[in-house]
Specification:
Blueprint: E1 5-9, H1 13-24, E2 28-32, H2 36-56, H3 65-69, E3 72-75, E4 86-89, H4 95-108, E5 114-117, H5 124-129, E6 137-141, E7 151-156, H6 162-174, E8 178-183, H7 190-206, H8 212-223, H9 229-236, H10 238-252, H11 261-268
Parallel strand pairs: 1-2, 1-4, 2-3, 4-5, 5-6, 7-8
Antiparallel strand pairs: 6-7
């Protein structure tokens, strides 16, 4: 199956990275968000990242930023997705919001269009069930920063078709990324492990066992990780961490997923990490 135009829903941290990755690979991108200010911010961020990320990766830019940006069209209405060939949704980890988006795009997009659900924890089978095309729905769990990560967690829902999986894996290969297919379960593999680690690291700080800096230093020094769990939490966004682990807590009914009270307190205070300039660290 050949794709030319990619719809990207949500211009937050992950959504703008997804849009950049497809535009850099030569695809036309329709980036949709409910706020024009968020779209303007996304384009500005993508322009900066197109200059900086090649240097971080030790390679020269393939094209001028303006050339890549010219492939991205923005819109504040989902109806702009009427002619896309493939859609990747990146809205907040809130089921009511996601359900509303899928009800709308299911009516707007052509029947054969595949929906890639970019979620940390929401079951793909649940998403597929609110559309008229459950065989065309799969999970595409991109990691942050999207343009610099070469692997994507691909989630097969209960009704996801083999053709859909093959098409998505082929599309990912076209943008230089490998897909690893896992089965549907809240949190899948990456977040089922990662969110518990970050949440437990927050408990360690809350219980005054160690500072945030020392927790992260141990993971970098003892395990060779590039980032500690609290640095990672700040990068992802502590609100996303809280939403994700809450979904797993409610799904599995297992106390090991209970959110740390300190995490809830920081989210209430809007100390969300890099996106707000303050989390466990100041940015």
């Amino acid at each position: 199956m050949s794709f030319r135009t990619i719809g990207v829903i949500g211009a937050g941290t992950i959504g703008r990275g997804v849009a950049q990755s497809f535009a850099e690979a030569g695809f036309e991108v329709v980036l949709v968000d409910i706020e024009q200010a968020q779209l303007d911010s996304a384009l500005a961020q993508i322009g900066r990242d197109l200059l900086v990320q090649p240097m971080l990766l030790g390679r020269a830019p393939k094209e001028e930023p303006a050339t890549v940006l010219a492939r991205i069209t923005t819109a504040t209405e989902l109806t702009a997705l009427a002619d896309v060939d493939f859609a990747v949704e990146n809205v907040t980890e809130n089921w009511d919001v996601k359900r509303s988006v899928y009800a709308q795009i299911d009516a707007i997009c052509r029947p054969g269009v595949i929906f890639g659900v970019n979620t940390s924890a929401v079951p793909i089978t649940r998403v597929g069930s609110v559309t008229g095309r459950p065989a065309k729905v799969l999970g595409l769990h991109f990691m942050n920063p999207v343009p610099m990560m070469d692997t994507v967690e691909v989630v097969s829902g209960h009704f996801t078709g083999e053709e859909t999986l093959d098409s998505a894996l082929g599309l990912l290969a076209e943008i230089g990324k490998k897909g690893i297919v896992v089965q549907d379960a809240p949190g899948f593999i990456t977040n089922r492990v990662l969110m518990v680690t970050i949440n437990e690291a927050i408990f360690c700080v809350q219980d005054q066992i160690a500072s945030a800096e020392d927790v992260d230093r141990m993971f970098r020094g003892c395990f060779g990780h590039k980032m500690g769990p609290l640095e990672t939490g700040d990068l992802i966004g502590l609100d996303t961490i809280l939403n994700s682990i809450t979904v797993m807590y409610e799904s599995y009914k297992d106390s090991k997923y209970r959110p740390a009270p300190l995490l809830q307190k920081m989210v209430d205070a809007r100390l969300l990490g890099r996106k707000t300039g303050q989390g466990f660290y100041t940015y």
